[in-house]
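In keeping with the milestone schedule agreed at the kick-off meeting, the structural modelling team has produced records for the first pair of proteins. Each record is given below as a sequence line and a structure-token line. The laboratory manager (R.T.) confirmed that both were archived under the project's standard naming scheme.
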Amino acid sequence: MPRLSDTMTEGVIAAWHKNVGDTVKKGDLLAEIETDKATMELESYQDGVLLHIGTPRGGKLQVNDLLAIFGKAGEDVSALIAQNTGTANAPAAVQTAPTPAAAPATTASTPAVDVSAMEEVVLMPRLSDTMTEGVIAGWHKKVGDTVKKGEVLADIETDKATMELESYKDGILLYQGAQAGEKILVNDLLCIIGQQGLDIAPIVAALKGGAATASPVQASAPAAQSVTTAPAIAATTPSTTQVVNEGRIFASPLAKKIAKEKGIDLKFVKGTGEHGRITRTDLENYTPGAATSVAQSTSATPSMVASVPAGTVSFVDTTVSQMRKVIAKRLSESLFTAPHFYLTMKINMDAAIKARTLLNETATAKISFNDMIVKATALSLKQHPKVNSSWMGDFIRENHHVNIGIAVAVDEGLLVPVLRYADGLSLTQISGSVKEFAKKAKDKKLQPSDWEGSTFTISNLGMFGIDQFTAIINPPDACILAVGGIAQEPVVKNGQIVPGNVMNVTLSCDHRVVDGATGAAFLQTLKSLLEEPLRMLA
């Protein structure tokens, strides 16, 4: 059972999407797990046949308890079940008892793992509902250090923030699954915590398909040496190395780690694994040629751009961050699945400007125009609950509470912390909360609870000089409000053309939930509140 949130200690099986005996592919939806925060989908991270499930639908499992076993059809899993649960019962429908002759071979080829020690294993937790992998921003403990329950083990960079991962047991840090700056997929081996002298090699081999890297607290082993010291093998590639991998490169985690340690560019390495996957053996048998050195020495950097001769092709490749990957995925899904339509309205902000000036003469915190827009939006949503709704697939949820997501730009992309029960907050409270969210977002200190549960979203680019734009809906919200800047324009007042301070707002609506007339009525209410701001203070 994986840890699907930073506070999760157990999970309930909401549904199984595969039955015992089914063939499962990597990426297939395996089950739905109800945690302390949400019901989340669990995908399989390997191919095989589902031989055993730890508990049926509705059953509860502690984190790191046996959830499922994958293997080959007919494989005997009774020993694994017994080691994990203390019972030898196995699913008869898919279990075939091994013959006596086959038993020794099985024992010899598979390392005996003391599964009682699996409590020592820490898998990469899912620290947000959209997280698929994490980057080690930094370790707070070294291999060999004593760790106490509650101490910070590492900083994990997710798709939304950098979060501290605390240890949930006492022991010694015996193994680290990746170094600072490296990625680990959710549910892959992060580290092992145990007692001095614990043999971690079979645990690492069982979970990673490779040998444990030697550490100060374990005896060196031949398997470890094969990882850290590559044998001297004659070059098997030409001296002028050719690029053999373009685009996405498939390589085992161990191969990527070795490549990084040796400074090998994987685009020059030919993989011999399945579908051209690069393995450890490929790297051990590889000798960099001249082209590799040239490629590394001429890699483009920002400082080199100015010196590139005219007519020369030049570019910089930047690895896509976790946050940017998820932004791309979620917004693409939103734009291409939710039928968007857009409503634009001009709002005269003369009265709002005067009201803000008066408020800031006595306010304990400076009130911004954005704070006034948030307040007016929250009050408008209470009057138009259909705009404050969510598309849930088989039904539409009309929310009675108003939780407004405030889009905040950071270097890696866009974060949307949620201002909860915004309709009941004063302008001063809104101002303080928005400033705190902005600071936490830029410092990467937002927690999952900060960005979950929005019912409506506001994206304001007015402070960047943008007059008008359209925004993509933040699912499962039904609408998002795009706010432009305030600019002086000719307006008609009392039959006369006079200068006025005008702001353009555009409401993006999911037509599955909101109709044009509903969205227009919402904007009319918003306009009236901002053009007569005293109504917001009543």
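The second protein of the pair:
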Amino acid sequence: MNKRLISLMLAVLTLFSVLLTSCSSTSNEDAMNDVTDEASRYTTTLNMYVVTEKETTPEAAAKVNDAINKITKAKFKTQVNIYFNTLDNHYALLDEKFAKIEADIAAEEEAKKALKKAQREAKARGETLATTAPETTSDETTAEETILNEYGLSELKYPAESSRQVDIIFVNGYDRYLQYCDDGILERLDDELSSGSKKLKDYINPVFMDAAVVNGATYAIPNNHTIGEYTYLLVNKEMAAKYSYDLSEFVDLASVAEFVEDVAKHEPTITPVCGDIELTNIRYLSLDKETLEFIPDRSIVAAYVSPTAGYSSRLTFRNIFATRQITDQLKTIKLFEEKDLIKKNADPSKPFAVSIMKGGYELNDVYGEDYHMIVLENPMAYEDSLYAGMFGVTQYTKDLTRSMEIITYINTNPELRNLLQYGIENENYVINEDGTLTRLNKTYMMDLLKTGNAFVAYPEEGMPVNAWDYGKKQNIDARLDPMNGFEFDAEALNWDYMDIMNNTSKTYLAGLADCKTYDDVVAFIDRAYEELTANTEFANSTKILVEGTPNFLYNEWHTMNWPPEG
């Protein structure tokens, strides 16, 4: 039987198989269209630059690449050459590659200009100058081209990648991402997200997708994972009922003060306050002059951040003694300290009246039956988490759409996702009876946050089997940091104002720390409010309308991003 007849029979069998398997989810007409689309595709070769851990061996990486290509060739007629590099040389390699491509392009342009000039000069002399056609960088072939593999069987031919080709790259860190966007390295992906890759919007949390938008466009696909943690206020349901407290009236730390005192007075076996207590829902507006980093807790200029605050929320920064939600916490904490109600080393598995705990959604399963769970802070997505890992497509790609197909499949298909993350089953890992994964060796090691959507990957041994279910629920409540993307412009900032804020903060924070009793704190807060209100120099340093103040720069940034309506 000749090869042409064999190929025809295989094509008919493939078509029949696809039609049968499509009946349950699509019409025959749709199935025919799918087959037509697949048959009309050309083979192509893409490349992908990913970040690996140092333990990964070249042999293990090559096996994973081969296994991945079995999937991408069958699904997309796309071969992917994967370049595995550790993070410490990943960007150096990419930047060197980009520079080489740009140099080649510039040299080619110069050669074309020189050739045209030579042609004009030859023409002026009445001569004809021989020309050479420019070398093409396109290596696309059709699905009809085949080669014989090592077993003597016919298979599709895939082109070699071009020397000027960089398709899919791993990017992390806000500064690096912004640099690649501004330099035009990354392609805009919005059209793909509205067409062939729109499925990604169902798999990637909107908080991540919002963070990926730069100047109104999306240039990379973030690797979806569990965002941040909650801050819960736990209130003992049994004790609240026993002493006739309405649980709905408990909304913050100050609202439980009387309840805690009652429990402490009448219930000696119940821990009044389990664990330490710190200020919550607070953001500081201060900058270290040497490092240009935000000072987390060494300032009296701060904003109260409500649990519902999101990316577009405008924060109000002023001295903390003028913000009731903050002063109420300061007073309550001192009240508890004075009466020795805070038991920092108490066992949280034993009954307690209240506690402030940070953690994931799973805390509801642990404590929700016995304790009323009040969310003081929803999970907040900060810069380090938002930009922990992304995949983008560069301007040097052979095919943007085909590259986005690969990125989409990595983020939505468990088989491909786990291959890239964990390697080959029964060689690099095994799946346990409970559905978690155990690594067999360290010859192939990748970071979960650097290889795609975490929720499509297996949870590792030691993690809850339903870790991703918790993560998905948690991400529904997640908020994007209201100050995401805000940085002080060191040149626009008047450092005199920042120095005034920092020096004043040192004085008043020291005074607050010296307070011994609840009454001392109440009196100090009242006095500090009056003094700071009357302090013209300090007041000017915190004003919104005074150019160069930290508040001026913050509000200018916020107004630029979210201009007032009307």
